[in-house]
Amino acid sequence: MKVAIPNNHGEVHQDLGRCDEFVIYEIREGEVKGGELLTIPNGQNYKGALWTLREKGVTAIICGNVGPGSARALASYGFHVIPQKSGRVEHVLHAFLKGELTGRLPTCQPCYAVRQGGGEE
Known about the structure:
The protein is of the alpha/beta class. It has a single domain (2-115), classed as Nucleotidyltransferase, domain 5 (2-Layer Sandwich), CATH 3.30.420. Helices cover 29% and strands 28% of the residues. It contains 4 helices and 6 strands. The chain has helices at 46-55, 68-76, 89-97, 109-115, and strands at residues 2-8, 11-12, 21-28, 31-39, 58-62, 80-82. Strands 1, 2, 3, 4, 5 and 6 form a 6-stranded mixed β-sheet that branches. A hairpin with a 2-residue loop joins strand 3 and strand 4 (31-39). The radius of gyration is 15 Å and the shape is globular.
């Protein structure tokens, strides 16, 4: 399995849509077997970055904040996403390896409005 974590000077980048660097870790049998730094070329859009991650074999993304639009894009690429994480990249990775990370993606805005009694049903 390969896991990507958006990187901002060694910290989990808190705005996935604006991240220009990911650390990709290869994990086998619960251990890190390798890693690489992926720099997103200047001007490449967010969906291009997701395509590149998928092409590199990434199946999971551990990240900070994810808005509804990004959540839909991530789901469309089939990534398992663990959002709302912060701290040093290596600490977050080790928590993942220990099975300590949980989280769920935000719902889309129209769905949220319906649950709150607004919007269309």
